[in-house]
Batch of 2 targets.
Target 1
Amino acid sequence: MPDYKFRVNGGAVSVNSWDPDQPLLYVLRNSLGLHGPKFGCGLGQCGACTVLVDGKAVRSCITPVKTVTNREVTTVEGLGSPEKPHPIQAAFIAEQAAQCGYCASGMIMSAKALLDSTPHPTPEQVKNSLSGNLCRCGTHTRILSAVLRAARNA
Amino acid sequence: MMTRRDLLKSGGALIVSFAFRQNGIAQGRSPELDSFIAVRSDGSVLLSTSHVDVGTGISTVFRQVAAEELGIPVERFIVVEGDTATTPNHGGTGGSTGVPRGAADIRRAAATAREAIIALAAKQLNRPEPELTIEGGEVRPGGLAVASLIGGKRFALKVNPNVKLKDRAHYTTVGKPILRTDVPLKCTGRQVYLQDFSVPGMLHGRVVRPPSFGARLASLDESSIKGIPDVQIVRKGSFVGVLSKDEWAAIRAARELKAEWSSWEELPGSENFEKALRAGTIEHDQTVINKGDAASALSGASKNLAATYYWPFQSHASLGPSCAVADVKAAGTTVWSSTQNPFGLRSNLAKVFGMPEEKIRVVYMDGSGSYGTNGASDAAADALLLSREVGQPVRVQWMRHDEHGWDPKGPAQLLDVRAALDPDGKIAAWETQMWLPGGPQGERALVGPELAGMAQEHGQGAGLMTANADPPYAIPHVRVVAHNLKTTPLRLSNLRAPGKIGNVFAVESLTDELAAAAGMDALEFRKRGLSDERAHAVLDRAARMIGWQPRPSHSLQIRAGNPYLAFGRGIAYVRYKQAENYVAIAMKVDVDRSTGQIIVRQIACAHDCGLIVNPDGLRNQVEGNIMQTLSRTLHEEVRFDRSKVTTTDWSSYPILRFSEAPSIEVALIDHPDQPSYGAGEAASAPVAAAVANAVFDATGVRLRSVPFSAEAMKKTLRASRDIPVVPRG
């Protein structure tokens, strides 16, 4: 089986996959034990699997592992921990911006990509950049407040 | 101190210090205190319950009420949910019963524990019990730590159903916005969801469903997946599953396995399904209310209004497809599931699989959100079926098309409503007739066992579908009849506030039509029919929050710069199940009369659920109710052809996106002297009606069928003779 070498959350990894087209999502979850990215649709429609590849938000459920060779992947685990949350995570916690929370990891990663390129977005910019991330519990207003809070605190 | 996370890390094999198993609450016996509460020697307290959190925050409510009664700080409590081997069975999670029943049981248990601890301390300190209290986790005066008295030991007492509860005036923890312990884990990828859970030696399973509900498997071409490594195929009747150590291999195998199926085309189709409902064979009629003589009053009245309202089948559409892990062993079977009713699932699995109940343990774990009954129980049956066949633990996660295509559905509803106004503009008479798909009583059939040809029940329960079908207003003649049909094309399910949203949509829309016919302001018209002060309070508050100005609807107002953009306001009210929460929702909407798009600008909700336990958790639930129901109202309809559901992804079954999310302002009205009602559903009920009423105010036309898609709005505008629609440009 071929090996694929890339970086995840700052560290070098080498994983093998019998299928070069295996989506990154399953490699992260099953080979590397990173469960932050979630399976939602496998179609790139819901955003639950969002991670950063070289700083850009991508849907890991439709990103073949072969395409991330030598690139830098960041998952929600790489931002911070419950003890030392990243400012965006801290803002989500402060706003209690979760119900079931299944979408939270993808929301936070999309927000990270947005705030890296646009540190002080308008509410409309936040809404537009999160429009590809679905939330079924209806936590939208809190997630929006959390992203704006993170931008304020940055 | 051990956290809930540590408990879960122990692989779900939680060993609780007490030996208690099934208790007798369901049988009406007084339950064992040790089944609810265990004080550990490190001072932490395990609270065990069959009510599960599913992201609602109810476990925080449980910690708060127990902390309040016990005098132990709230952060020391760890909630263990829904493990049939260790937690008491005091009911499943649903119908907004978590607070009024679940928390009430826990409160009594904690108060019983408090009395027992005080008695122990009184002996040890040689002081009379009335002189002692528990505060900060210690008995005072004396400073004896609770853990030193009972830590690691059993109470060996029954819960006292008549125990003296703490005086509400002295509450310090109840009423506070205590933060949830799961949110930091969920926002950092550390929460162990069911979907993230694994056991040693576990295989990944995927199911291969037929192309139509009734198709039978003719043949499988195993060679079609020979390029995929290490895949096992399980076939049992028309149930097909594939298994592999590698999840991606299982997914590809499920996708690529070629199978021949018989054809089956016996569904009525969702196009014009309301006609099929009206023509359906009635199993039984249910008179919900019959007061006065509605028929005569309606026929004798000078001013009559009648309309038909329709609510379509809707899906739970959980963001993460249903999942389960099952491990069938000779010694016993364990199923890890995000079901909202672990004891109910165990009992049904035992029946369907012919296993003794005591040989099955169902362990709840948080999964992707569910709002009643999604595919969780079906996924559990799939995993159990596969694990039993291969003799290894199996994790099954459905794919997106499995979830949308095969989860049980929130029922469609058809409502004919008629009402009459008296000469003073008051409602003189009201009649509602509704048609509901239905079927036998009993357990809902599980998909996998059905395909495998296993004997099981075919119940079609969907919850209290008829509640709130009668108007809340003072009306002398009211008749509400539900026609429960013999059959349903799609399996039915409890989906958040079942029936109530559609009923309130019909009732509060027709009420709005009556107000308009009477030439009255919609808020004033409602208040005139309500005598309860708490009803007036929520209506006034919600109206004030959007700057409501009294006037009749409709009133054409156009946004400057765009002649097509009309705006309006609407309001709707419910007393949930006619006996619980008071909720009023007012909103402002724009309607683009050239595209048909409805833009909800601002929503205000006034919510009174009696005593508030956790205002932040409550607010989160109310906001979620509103946003989710807005999604159901604007976008959601399960469509099906003669064979199958055709809306099987997020593009064919769209839900609300961020770009459409309005601002929501919630006013919580606290009544510390009143009972607490649950808040998991109530604020859903008035949403669709409030949107429809606001759309009417803006455009003068009324939407009577959900979803309110841009297409439907445009069609309704075109059909209206009063509103000329000029094409843009």
Target 2
Amino acid sequence: MADLTRDDVLKLARLARLTITDEEIEQYRKELSDILQYVAQLQQVDVSGLQPTTQVTGLTNVMREDEVIDYGSSPDALLRIVPNTQDRLIKVKRMIG
Amino acid sequence: MSQWLPIAELAAKVKSGELSALQLVERSLQTIAEKKEYDAIIAVTAERARERATNIDTAVKNGEQPGRLAGVPFIAKDNYLVFGAETTAASNMLRGFIAPYQSTVIEKLEAEGAICVAKANLDAFAHGASTENSDFFTTKHPLDKERVPGGSSGGSAAAVVLDMAPFALGTDTGGSTRQPASFVGCIGYKPTYGTMSRFGIVAMASSTDVVGTFARTVDDAALVIDVMSARDPLDSTTIDRDEAGYIDLSADISGKKIGIVKEWMSSGLDGGVKQVIETAAEKFKAAGADVQEISLPTLPLALAVYYIIVPAEVSSNLSRYDGQRYPYSNSEAVDLDESYITSRGTGFGAEAKRRIMIGTYVLSSGYYDAYYNKAQTVRTKLINEFRAAFERLDFLIGPVAPTPAFKIGENSNDPLRMYLADVMTVGPSLAGIPSISVPAGTSNSLPVGLQIIAAQRQDRALLGMAKAAEGLLA
């Protein structure tokens, strides 16, 4: 696998919704390239006949009743952790320019 | 010598009125204050702890039953939501987050009378193996302040060895309970995936995250595990508890078939650690166990599998921290998109950003099959090898980590080198099987743990084996 370029890092940061500084670009370019080189060793492994594992204890869909239960909290307690509210709504910045 | 009696005895004395819960809480808070320079603790929850202790003491006076853990203080890693307490996961992103509800396992411990006295330090969002990735400070090793206590649950592990409380909770995603337990010298238990509810714990990688238990003895750990283990409708991955429970263990090792993992005993292993593991194997043999070498050829690939799957899940779980729903937000942004990217860009530390970007890469179209899907398939191969091994063996043993506790700063400039600290613990995590670190000796005067692993849902048998090991290796 080839090393990541500066543009690759900027694209990843953009996809992940992260700002990064100019200094960080070079740092992450090198570190992420090292990590991806390391994990790329899996590409040589023969896995013919095997399926991917997504759940290790064999559970499939687990259903429960959709009931209101009391866990000692309240909508107001939840809203208190939100940085910006107005009239019991979460307030965000404008979405279109 | 610990200031704490075995947990069952402490609770019995509180129930009989010989000790008061408030005395125990004050003793715990005082020890935390006296040992502040180790930076094991992010915050104490003194007010609520004293209130709960007073209620328990009143219940005892009124002849009520305060529970199996009556008055026993404990410390929770700061990624557990505890009513009314700030829960930061040692991250700037969650600074100021006052838990509006409480973790299921904290509820279960409280229902039996246990009292949370403090929240312990960790690598931010549990990403790391040393606590150096904490956005606040690095916890110092209890025996050598220039060294790390391991991680990510380094604060909880150090707190137990510093005698701050009889037990502590950690989490274990790829070794975050077992590795610090090995580094500082206490019991660290990772159960079968799903044994305990993760509801109310800050999620890291949901396919391997489990509740971890730190204690001084296997019996202490087992009692706490017995209280916490149950299915929970609020965590649909939970499984039924063992009908026999997790206490009153049989510590008989005679006739047990034990495999020493070949792949972990070869190159790159510290000489002192190797010696400790080999000596443990000899002692097990002398006690009547059948100890043989076993090879799991895919095991050396487990770390590569882990560092694809876990960042993928991290990138998904951490997408909720977007500057809108949790306290940290960049108020200067002019529109929503800028608010997302600048809040995340300045709120997350370097390791969280690295993992989010690796996760984003391996899940992105064009790379998904080559990385994520391939890793999940190699995971199947690894699970099959563990399963085959447990068809003829009762337990596997090996080191917990390739070295004893390393120096602060030794690995912090090279993320990949830090990841190698997890090389022996990630396999059981990926397979969802139980694994424990038991103190087994020292290398250069630093503690070394023995890792013991069992088949899925064999937690009760594993705890029994660990109790036998504890007796033989003490």
